[in-house]
Amino acid sequence: MNFFRSFFLALAMLVAAAAAPTLSAQPPAAAPNPDATLNYIHAAWDTLTRSVTDCNSLADTKIDTTPVLYLPADLPAPPAVTALEKTCHIRVLSLPRRIEKLGDVRPEELHTPGLLYLPNPYVVPGGRFNEMYGWDSYFILLGLEADHKEALAKGIVDNFLFEIEHYGAVLNANRTYYLTRSQPPFLTSMIRAVYENPASFPSTPAGRIQARAWLEHAYVLAEVDHATWERPEHKAGSTGLSRYYDFGAGPVPEMADDSAYYTDVLRWLVAHPHQGGDAYLVKASEHPDAAEASKLNLTSCDIHASVVCAKAWYAGFRLSRDFYSGDRAMRESGFDTSNRFGPFSGDTHHYAPVCLNSLLYRYERDLEHLAVVLGNVKDAAHWDRRSQARASAIQRYLWRPKDGVFADFDFVHARPSSYAYIASLYPLWAGFTTRDQATKIVAQLNLFERPGGLSNSNTNTGLQWDAPFGWAPTNWIVVSGLDSTGFRTDAARIAQHFDATVDAGFATDNTIREKYNVVAGNSAVKVTAGYKSNEIGFGWTNAIYLKMKQVIQKQPIAPAN
Questions:
Q1: Are β-strands 91-94 and 115-116 bridged in parallel, bridged antiparallel, or unpaired?
Q2: What's the pLDDT score for residue 560?
Q3: 75 within a domain of the structure (yes/no)
Q4: Which residues are catalytically annotated?
Q5: Which domain holds residue 275?
Q6: In a domain, 459, yes or no
Q7: Residue 11, burial from CB neighbour count under 10 angstroms (0-12, 13-18, 19+)
Q8: What is the pLDDT of residue 16?
Q9: Per the domain annotation, does 21 fall within a domain?
Q10: Residues 413/396, Cβ–Cβ less than 8 Å
Q11: What total of structural domains would you count in the chain?
Q12: Ranges under pLDDT 50 in the chain
């Protein structure tokens, strides 16, 4: 019995007991009706589509200020944007200077946070997320193409190319407070999805010329975006691997709408001494004098520059500067939050994660493929060498042969993580596993598979990216990886269970949510720490529901009893 199984079997009863509060009964529901779910999804794309020329797109529920739209410093205001000042009663401003890379313009330099201009319509996740997000958009794009909305899908990719040209990289999302970080890198997968779809461009000689020119432009900008992950700050020590990293400092400003978040973190850390978060605590006054405030600017955060920082105090403590670095890196990872990298993932920046390095391997293989398509032999050879070097480093630092699992690596302390997490299955999707490794990884499915799909972890922490919660993007990456590596029955089974969970949730309240309780197989989600809401919309769930249907149709299996 390997480490993960022995460890988690010992915890099984505790996990089940901890999960019990999340299995609260939902109101009586109608029988699940997949046709009703599909009708909702088909109509939801219009509901979730935004454009910077639409007044409703400018509002930000996370920041309670008068909407501001920012233009790149070197872009004259288009007439339709200038008109917004009257029609939407907003301000249109230009960024102070041209941006070459993340962090060139700091959010705190801008007096008022605002939306960053994008030229094309895009699809938002829903709920409090009223902007175009980095990794959400990859999954959304898959759904748009499945629903034959190719023009909207291509426009989203063009928006990302615009972000790279004018904001330095693919952003976490197009708000000014995201100018210091990206999100999990899926750009080349999006480029290929658009370019390889015959419906993206006219099927004429002129259309083929247009497609070629588009791909050449996209390839150059994808190289620029990849360089973001090669910056020294994104290096995971001397491993040759990458880490998540945000170029900002202190608490993130978008938490202004959830001012209790960092206080809740402090409350938990104080109540649970010696559970890995002691180093995150800094003794401090609630209302420090000037001398103490100056010291806190070095050890914690700047209480004068950030309202969120000023409020982040509990029982004589504030959070350390290093915690805020990890907190920001965790948000770049998209997994906000779990206990995967210490309490509240405060050590995220200390790890070479399986997910990020799997995605970058796929990114580099995609760049090689695109270079071949474009006839650039020299570039293709470069990207082949780069991806093989990453694959070698992954095998050296992340593969644990005795346990049959890829695990995150703490490069600060030179040790692998023992936290079972769904990211250990990403290598199937990335495509660098041997057949023996793939077989061993699939044998670990029982760590995460539940009646309603895949749980993100096997540990119930009360955080939304841990057990018993399952999310569309991680379920899809695993299902897609299983399908592409020949484990089609496993892929179809999980796909069927996940879609049944979405159907059950929709039958309860006619909504689709950002996450689900995969133990109960419904949307009865009760998060006790961190982000506590379960947003309605929801872009990537809508999309992956459609993609799961395609997998099920390819490999039908008998319904579960």
A1: unpaired
A2: 52
A3: no
A4: 336, 514
A5: 253-351
A6: yes
A7: middle
A8: 34
A9: yes
A10: no
A11: 2
A12: 1-25, 561
